[in-house]
Each structure stands twice: as structure tokens, then as C-alpha cells.
Amino acid sequence: MKFYNSTNEIPEEMLKGIDLTYPQLTYLLETGILYDNTYNEKTVPIISGGGSGHEPAHVGYVGSGMLAAAVTGPLFIPPKSKNILKAICQVNSGKGVFVIIKNFEADLKEFNEAIKEARNEGIDVRYIVSHDDISVNAYNFHKRHRGVAGTILLHKILGAFAKEGGSIDEIEQLALSFSPEIYTLGVALAPVHFPHQKTSFVLAEDEVSFGIGIHGEPGYRVEKFEGSERIAVELVNKLKAEINWQKKANKNYILLVNGLGSTTLMELYSFQYDVMRLLELEGLSIKFCKVGNLMTSCDMSGISLTLCSVKDPKWLDYLNAPTGAFAW
Fold first, then answer.
1. In 10 A of CB 77, how many CB atoms?
2. Mean pLDDT, rounded, of the chain
3. pLDDT band at residue 7, thresholds of 50, 70 and 90?
4. 197 pLDDT exceeds 80?
5. Number of neighbours of residue 309 by Cβ within 10 angstroms
6. Across 191-196, average pLDDT
7. Distances in Å between the alpha carbon of 321 and those of 44, 108, 128, 177?
């Protein structure tokens, strides 16, 4: 059982609860739009969104120095384009609006429709498609390139830069240079559980699935669970093969250890310790690290690991800059 009245009502009730908790945040009823009512109209607003079930993403990252607004849809279903358009119009002050979209077909459809309509109305809208997932399809081994936990790094860096006064052109250039450096891979010990619904995949109590998705998608391989360190080795090796850091001069990296919903902080920090030891052996220097349930998959028991090369020292300044977002 879960602490909500119905799966249909929980996103609306959650957003009403956030509105009542944080005076600086305002929820527009029945739209999925949560916006920062203290937003500085002299700066370019950053917005993002997607289906509910990934909390604290994206609503938890609305606030000064991050998102000006987030748009939330039903469980694992993106918001409708009409509501995304309303969010764009809500925060637009004539300096342009920058949108962060996770790379899923349904999300792209709704966000692109809204962006097209906003542009038709004369609003300068730019966007970036987050595609940090390096998992592969188990049947054809094609890269999935989904937008997953690394997306919140875009929220923070672009939001901090916008707060500094970056123009829409400058924000777009920063997004295009930063986004390709983000790489993420996830693993699950148990799938998502919705009341009265079948799980999207099944694991025995002693099994682990590598390469799962944030909507409960199964991974590319199932193995017997052999401890946190073994999982850390798999994820680090896969990220190493993708990033090729052994052939690159820059050894400075950003690290995210993300819980997928029901993974405890005790587990997350234990896993982070395993990862940090491996990265030290690889000669990498972690300049920024964040651990927590940052972009979840409802109550999935799992972890994702994100690494991002620090090509510009200013990126670290943006990550460390203060923010009013309650979940950062």
C-alpha cells in the first residue's frame, strides 16, 4: 500500500502540498505547473518537466538559481503540450525561455509542440535534449540515450548561469557544451510497484538488473547480486568504456550517486565509497559529488551513477552556487 488516495489524484495532491509548504512556490491548479513566484524577470527563465514519479525531479528543483518553473504530468506520462505552453508563457518576460527536455519519445512530442506554438506567438524559446543514459537495448544493443539523473546537472548549471545574467544565446551555448559530457548508468534490485498493477519486470530476491530506466524499463542484463562493490565495478567499467577517460588529459570529474526511490542513504553512501575507491585507482579527481534520491523511479530499489568531465572550471562554480530549490 502507498500513502495516497488514488494514482490519478496523487500528482495534483502532491503539487498542492508543495504549494502549501513553500511560500515562494505557486501551483497553478490542474495544470501541473509549479513556478517560483520570486523569479527575477530580468533573467532568462529555465524550465523543465516530465511525468510524475521521479520526485524530487522536477518540482524540487524550482527555485532561485535553478528552474523558474516545472511542469508535471501523470505518473510516468509527460505533461500535455498546452500546459507546457502555459508554463513558458507564465515565466516569459521578453528575454527568451530555455527548456530542458529528457530524451523520451513522448516527452519530445509534447515539449516540441509547445515550443513550436510558443515560437509562433513570438517567444524566443531554445532547448536542450538531455540524453545521458548509456544503457543499451537488450535485444539489439542500440544505445538508448535516455534523459535520466544527469539532467539535474543541467538544471543547476544553466539555472545558476541564468541567475548571473547569461543571455539566451549564452545559455544555449553552455547547454550544448555541457550536456554531451554527462554519462549515466543505472541498476535495480527491485522494480517499481504500483497498487493493482503488474511490475514491468521481475527480479528474484538475489538478482540485479543492469541498465534499467526511470520509467521501470528492464535493463540489458540480469545477474546474481554479489554486493555493492561488484555493482560499482560494473557501472564504473561501463562508464569508462563510454567516456574513454584513460585517453584524455582532463581527469577532473563531477559525480552523482542517485537513489531510484527506496534506496536508503546508508546504501547510497556505502556505494559511493566503493565508487570513489575505484575512481581513485583510475586516476580521476572528483571535484564535485552529490549523493541522494535526486531523480527517482517511484519506489524502485536501485541506484544510478553519473559522471561528467569538468571541461570548464566555471561549471563547478555554478554547481556550488546557492539556490532556493528545496531539493538541491
1. 17
2. 96
3. confident
4. no
5. 20
6. 78
7. 17, 30, 22, 19
Strands laid side by side in the 182-190 sheet: 221-224, 207-210, 182-190, 301-309, 252-259, 285-292
* Residues marked as catalytic: 54, 215
Say if CB 279 and CB 236 are below 8 A apart: yes
% of the chain exceeding 70 in pLDDT: 99
Number of Cβ within a 10 Å radius of residue 119: 13
Domains of the chain are 10-180 (3.40.50.10440), 181-320 (3.30.1180.20)
How deeply is 68 buried, as exposed, middle or buried, from its count of CB atoms within 10 A (0-12, 13-18, 19+)?
buried
pLDDT in tens, 161-180: 999 999 999 999 999 999 99
Given pLDDT bands bounded at 50, 70 and 90, which one contains residue 50?
very high
DSSP state of 320: H
- Of 179, 181, 189, residue with least CA distance to 210: 189
